[in-house]
Fold this sequence. Notes:
Layout: H1 3-14, H2 24-36, E1 41-43, E2 49-53, E3 61-67, E4 72-78, E5 84-89, E6 101-106, E7 109-117, H3 122-125, H4 127-131, E8 139-143, H5 150-155, E9 163-166, E10 171-172, E11 177-180, H6 183-201, E12 209-214, E13 231-237, E14 240-242, E15 253-259, E16 262-263, H7 266-279, E17 283-287, H8 294-300, E18 306-315, E19 321-324, H9 325-339
Parallel strand pairs: 3-12, 3-13, 13-18, 14-18, 15-17
Antiparallel strand pairs: 1-2, 2-12, 4-5, 4-9, 6-7, 6-9, 7-8, 10-11, 11-19, 15-16, 15-18
Zinc ion (ZN) is lined by residues 67, 184-185, 217, 238-239.
Amino acid sequence: MQPEEIVRDLMELLAVPSPTGRAEAAADLCAERLAGYGLPVTRSARGAVVAKIAGTGGGPARALTAHVDTLAAVVAEVMADGRLRLSPVGGLPALSCDGAYVEVWSRGGSVTGTILPEHASAHVFGPRYEEQRRTWQEMRVRLDLDVKDREGVLAAGIRPGDFVVLDPRAVVTPAGFVKSRFLDDKACAAALLAAAGELARGPRPARTTYLHFSVYEEVGQGAPAGLGADVEEIVAVDMAAVGAGQASDEHLVTICAKDSGGPYDWSVRARLRALAEQAGIPYVEDIYPYYASDATAAARSGRDIRIGLFGPGVDASHTHERTHQDALLATAQLAVAYMREE
Ligand SMILES: [Zn+2]
């Protein structure tokens, strides 16, 4: 596996908007790629992509899951002045959206706009520009339409409930960093696709293995939709939280010990550690203070499963994210090692 290939897949995924609830385009892309590797692909009722790879040995099945849905918003209210108030989908901080370019997916087609605070002009509002709060109550979408009132916006076909997607701002830098709003979790979806390609080129895994691309993670509803009753272990492949006090790093894969949902299974962690060490994969272990994964969602669904979590270090998560291709490669390598575990 080459890091450049993972970055190329990642940029392709980032170019396809896939808000939670309308993530089908990114899911289609993953399904096509898996089918291209000759893997059997099915879709769950809710749209998750599932490839079930039959194992050569016996024993219970396992799953690796990454999510292709991203943070977004929907129109909450069309204001009297023709601006839009939004309701976030998932944990999208309003402050990070000041100045974001968006598309509103209305019944009349796609309309572009910009998220701005109510008092957006520094020349008109002076100090009020700095002082005003930037929560979803105060932020507005200025539509690129010649409309000055609610009636004009309604006439353009825009209604409460319409999806609002943000410009992903995806960039690869010469030093190997990837920046985008939505590395969570397309970075891991790309790493998992690379791992699937590697698996398809080599021997089949000993255990029956599901590769799962979920479409409702950001609202805590992703896995286990689409996973068979034979699955005894679910490992989420999702971003690791980088920041002050964290061990996670943009160049490493993190094996998560605990997040807000509680500890991950100790035996899964121990095996992931051993696999990383055997394969010489650069990793750390860490905890995440404000975080839950699709593996947690699966456990909360009442399934009797062991859960695990690993993924690349991502700085400034849910705002202006950045990782490095080193971490993408390490994540893909750990996914391959896990699938090939004896
Ligand atoms: Zn995520």
